[in-house]
Amino acid sequence: MQVSEVMSKGIVSVTSLDSVRKVAKLMKEKDVGAIPIIEKGQPVGFVTDRDIVINCVASGYNLDGPVSHAMTENVISVTEDQDVTEVSRLMQQNQVSRIVVTDKEHHPVGMVGLQDLTLEDEDIAAETISKIKQ
Q: Are 108 and 43 in contact (CB under 8 A)?
């Protein structure tokens, strides 16, 4: 099964210069827990609600400062035509539960998460969860 069959299409994104406060409000408005950071049409980072709490709120960082303070720069991505087993392997290898999906030109087109895998193949999802949580 291909990633395109299970991914969430469309993407909410921000730039590294957007404020932490703006990103947190966007997460609440869109009901998402993670947002990719896009610069010049390419994913350059990733920020989760947990990143904001740990790296900003708990440390007293100015929430009007750039979200680059909270983001992870190592973006894991797959293309739409890759197999879901590759997504599972990458999630396990990198200990992540969400991956950016790009087109062939590396422009983000969606996201795939553990929940997406669970809806399609409970065995793959269960194995992935157990390896991520080790």
A: yes
- pLDDT higher than 90, residue 114: no
Q: List beta partners, residue 113.
A: 98
Q: What is the dihedral of CA 25, 31, 34, 35, to 10 degrees?
A: -60
**SS3 label, residue 47:** strand
d(CA 71, CA 100): 14
**What's the pLDDT tens digit per position in 56-76?**
999 999 999 999 999 999 889
Strand pairing class (77-79; 34-39) = unpaired
Strand 98-102, strand 77-79: pairing = parallel
pLDDT for 95 beyond 60: yes
Single out the residue of 17, 13, 44 nearest to residue 26, CA to CA: 13
Structure tokens at 42: 């390419």
